[in-house]
Amino acid sequence: MCKSNHEESKIKPIKRCSWCTADPLYIKYHDQEWGVPIFDDRKLFEFLILEGAQAGLNWITILKKREGYRKAFADFDPLKVSTFSKKKKEKLLLNSEIIRNRLKIDSAVKNAQAFLKIQKEYGSFSTYQWGFIDGVAIKNKWKTSKQIPTQTIISEKFSHDLKQRGFNFVGPTIMYAYMQAVGMINDHVTYCFRYNQV
């Protein structure tokens, strides 16, 4: 049955965070992933690699290369990535499906090795990272995206500890973006339809 113009006018458009563009990849990421708490170590390792790769770039660039990263980095298996040889890393530098940056590729391998050490010490990387916020996600109440900080005391502490453990590309700004992505922080603005869902 056709809806009347009056009924159609009652349908409210979905409101999203202002950073979410009309790109279908961005919309899917915003609507289904961003801010949802993650406790799976392989997924957490994936976001560590992707957030580090994003440094100096737009997130949409990384989203478009995500499948390329999945193939190039052994489906984000930290054990496999930790064993990547010099020859393997040189091959990755020729792979157009990822960001061809030597420092970022070296960092992914080094971070995989440090990631495994944390798993051994804490039982899981998830246990380690969620310990920074006592296991409970922080729910902010930002009314506009302009209010959202780029780093906090917690992301600085997290970053510092990771660096002490041998990680690279884990500065406080990168780690704040990571914390947002994996749901340690709910930074959806209050008018966003996802704010109360995650």
Task: Write the SSE topology.
Elements: H1 5-10, H2 24-32, H3 41-54, H4 59-64, H5 66-72, H6 78-81, H7 86-92, H8 102-122, H9 125-130, E1 138-139, H10 153-164, H11 172-181, E2 185-186
Parallel strand pairs: 1-2
Helix pairs in contact: 3-8, 3-11, 10-11
Description:
Residues 1-9 have low confidence and may be disordered. The protein has 198 residues and is mainly alpha-helical. The two termini are 34 Å apart. Strands 1-2 form a two-stranded parallel ribbon. 52% of the residues lie in helices and 2% in strands. Helix 3 crosses helix 11 (172-181) and helix 10 packs across helix 11 (172-181). The protein has a single domain (36-186), classed as Orthogonal Bundle (Endonuclease III, domain 1), CATH 1.10.340.
Short description:
The chain contains eleven helices and two strands. With about 200 residues, it is mostly helical. The chain has one domain: Hypothetical protein, domain 2 (Endonuclease III, domain 1), CATH 1.10.340.30.
